[in-house]
Amino acid sequence: MSMTTSQSVTTVLIILSILLCSSYSDALSSPLEDENPEIFIVHVSKLDKPSVFPSHQDWYTSTLQSLPAHLSPSHPRGSIIYTYKNVFHGFAAPLTPSQASHLHLQPGFLAILPQEIHQLHTTRTPHFLGLSDNSGLWPGSEYGDDIIIGVLDTGIWPESQSFNDSSIANPVPKRWKGICESGPDFPSTSCNKKIIGARFYYKGIEAKVKHKLNETRDSKSPRDTDGHGTHTASTAAGSVVKNAGLYEYGVGEAKGMATKARIAAYKICWSDGCAAADILAAIDQAVADGVDVISLSVGSRTQHPFYQDSAAIGTFGSAMKGVLVTASAGNSGPSPLRVTNAAPWIFTVGASTIDREFPCDVILGDGRVFSGVSLYSGKPLEKSNTELVFAADIGSIFCKEGELNSTAAAGKIVLCDGGGGIGIAEKGNAVKMAGGVGVIIANSLVYGEELSAVSHLIPGATVTFKDANEIVKYIDTQQKPTASFDFKGTILGSSPSAPKIAAFSSRGPNFITREILKPDVIAPGVNILGAWTGAVGPTDLEVDKRRVEFNIISGTSMSCPHVSGLAAMLRKAYPNWSPAAIKSALMTTAYNLDNAGKNFTDLSTGKDSTPFQHGAGHVDPNKALNPGLVYDIQPSDYEAFLCSIRYNRTQISLFIHDKTVDCSSSHTSVAGPGDLNYPSFSVIFKPPNDSVVKHKRVVTNVGKPGDAIYRVKVTNPSSAEISVSPSILTFTATNQSLSYEITFTSLSKADNVTKTEFGSIEWTDSAHVVRSPIALIWPPSL
C-alpha cells in the first residue's frame, strides 16, 4: 500500500465535503424534497463513543434520530440497515446528501461514503483492468472458452467454488490429451469441465531432500495443501463466485481473468521446494497434454545462464510448440538486477497495486494516528488503550518465537521489527504465545510505503518504517505508553492513485542478457484475493486452525496468473497468433500513467518508476485485443539470438533438439542480442567506442483490412539521440510485415559509474498507439 489511511480518509472527506456542501448550497435555492436518499457507509471512531451511550448501536441510532428534520422534510431519518463491529466500526443507513453532510461534521464520525461497495469484485482486478461484459476482451474472446491454461504450482483444491463448471456448456476439448491423476485424497471425480486435468511430480524433490515426502504435510496427489496453487489457478481462470471474500474483507463477486478457460493443474512444489527435475517434467507433459498457456509462478533465487536454467530450457521448447509461458518476475525487490525468468521467450510479469486498500489505524495514547493495513477479523482489544512495548526491550526485536519475555509481553501490544527472515503472521503468533494481545509490525525500510495486509491471529497491523520509528520514540518517552487499533475494512477509490510498483517486485536490468529489457509488464500483485485450500489457514501457520474459502496474499506469483488469463483470451481471439505475437500485443498496448494521470510510483522510493521496474507498463486487456501492429518472433530468430550471446553448439543443443545450429550461417549471423525482434529495447553503449548502436525491427499489421499508415513519435532521453528510419510505415494489407531501423547515438562521455536513461517510440495511426519502452545503459569505463 502506498498511501496512509488518514490520508485516504482525509481525501475522501474533502471530496465528499465539497460534493455534499455543494448539494447543501444548491438546496438553499431548491426544495430539499428533491433530494433522494441513498445508502451511505458511515465509519466512526470506536474511541470517540460518548460515555452516555451504553453501546455503539445506541450512539448510532441516537445520532441518526437527532438529524435536523428540515434537512429532508419529505424523507424521514433512515434506520440502520447494517452495523459493523468486528473489523471496523460504523453502520450503513439511507441518507440524503444534506443529511450525510450534516452527519460527517459530528465528532467521532470519520467518513461517510456513498455505497459504492455494491460494485466491488473480490479480486477487484477485473474492474481495475477495465474488463466488461459489454465490450472488449471478455466478449471478444468468449471469456477464453475452451482455452487450456496449465498451472504449474502447488496443486489445486477442487472443492473450491472457483472451479465449478456450471457456466461451461461445451465438453472437454477433444484435443486435450491429459488425465486426472488420482491420489489418496484426490479421486478422479475431482476433475470436471473446469479442472480438466491434474498431475503431480515429486521424484525430483524427494531426491533432493533425500527422504520421502511427509504425507501429513504434502499429499501425494494433485491436491493443494499449501494454498498457493489454488490461488493462482483461480486468478487465471476462476469461475464466477458470488459473495466471496476473506471474512469481511473484499466481499463481492469473485472472477478469474478467463472465466470460461479450462485449468490443468500440475503440482510441482512441495513443503521442501520445487525441484528442477519436477518442473521440467511438468512443462514437458503440459505441452504434450495440449495446454495453450503455461502459468509459472515459480522462480529460482539465483540467476543462471539460460543453458543452466531449467525453466528457461523447458519454456523454450514450449514456445517452439506454440505454448506461451507467463512467469513471475520474482519477489527480490527493490534491489536491481534481480529479475528472474528473464529469457526473452518467457513473458515476465512484475507486481503492482490496485485501487483497493484494507486500512487499519494505530492510535497512540497521545492521540496521534498512524495508518497501517490489516486483515484481522476477530474480537477487538478488551481495553481501548492497551499498554504498548517495543520487542527489542523484551527479548527479541524481530519477535522470534520463544525469545520474548512473557512477563513483559503479557496483556500488551508488542511492536516488532519486520526483518529477521520471520514472516509477519509468524511474528504475531510469537507475540500471542508470549501473552501479548496485539501486534504492530514495522515494515522494512526498503519497502517504503508498501504495506501487505495479513490476517493476524490477534489484533494487529503493519505500519511503515518511518511511522514505526515515531511509535518507538513515543514508547521511549512515555511512562506508560498505550495504543489501540481501528480496523476500517475495505476501501476502494482513486486515492491513493494506482497502480504503483510493489517494492518486493524484482527489477531489472536483466542480469543474464542486458540487451533484453525485463520485466516485460506489470499486473496486479498486491493484496489479491483468490480461492484457498481447505488444508491450512489464511496465515499458513500450523497453529492457525481457521479455514477460509478465499485468501488475500501478495507477490509476483499473483500478478503472473492475471497475465496468463489475459493471454489465454487473446489465444482464443487469435488462434493463429504465435506466443510472441500475443506477448507483443500486451506489451505495446500497456499504459504508463496511473489513474491520477501521473507516472507510476515506485513504492520503495516514492519516486517515478522506470522500465526496469515496470517494463512496457501495466497491461491493458481491451487495448491488447486490437494492438494494430505486433512484433513477431520465429524459431530462427531465437536461434540467431542464442548465437548472438555466444552460446556454443553444446549449449544451443539444450534448446534446439531437431538440428544442429551453425552460428556462422547467414540467418544466425546477427550483430547482437539486441537485434531480436523484441517489443522493447535495452541499449548498451559499451566503452570506449560504442557511441552509436543500431537495431532492426519488423512489425506486422494485424489491424483491420485496408491501408494503414503509421508514423513514429520518439521520446529522447537527455544523453542520447534516437532516430528511426523510415519514420512512416505504409501497410496495404493485413498480416503484411515491414521493417525499420532504429539508431541510438550517445551524447554522453564514458564515466566510471553505470548510467541509465529511458525513452520510448510510438507508432501511431488513426486508431492505434504501438509503444516500445527504451532503456539506455552506459557501463562504467575501466
From TrEMBL:
GO molecular function: serine-type endopeptidase activity
Compartments (UniProt record): Secreted
GO cellular component: extracellular region
Region (Disordered): 213-234
Pfam family, one: PA
InterPro entries in alphabetical order: PA_domain, Peptidase_S8/S53_dom, Peptidase_S8/S53_dom_sf, Peptidase_S8_Ser-AS, Peptidase_S8_subtilisin-rel, Peptidases_S8_3, S8pro/Inhibitor_I9, S8pro/Inhibitor_I9_sf
Gene Ontology biological process terms, A to Z: proteolysis; system development
Position of the signal peptide: 1-27
Occurrences of domain Inhibitor I9 (ranges): 40-121
SUPFAM superfamilies according to UniProt: Subtilisin-like
Biased composition (Basic and acidic residues): 213-229
UniProt entry keywords in alphabetical sequence: Glycoprotein, Hydrolase, Protease, Secreted, Serine protease, Signal, Zymogen
Principal location: secreted
CDD domains, A to Z: PA_subtilisin_like, Peptidases_S8_3
The Peptidase S8/S53 domain, residue ranges: 144-601
Domain Subtilisin-like protease fibronectin type-III: 675-775
Active site: D153, H228, S557
Domain PA, chain residue ranges per copy: 399-471
Family: Belongs to the peptidase S8 family.
Protein name: Uncharacterized protein
Originating organism: Papaver atlanticum
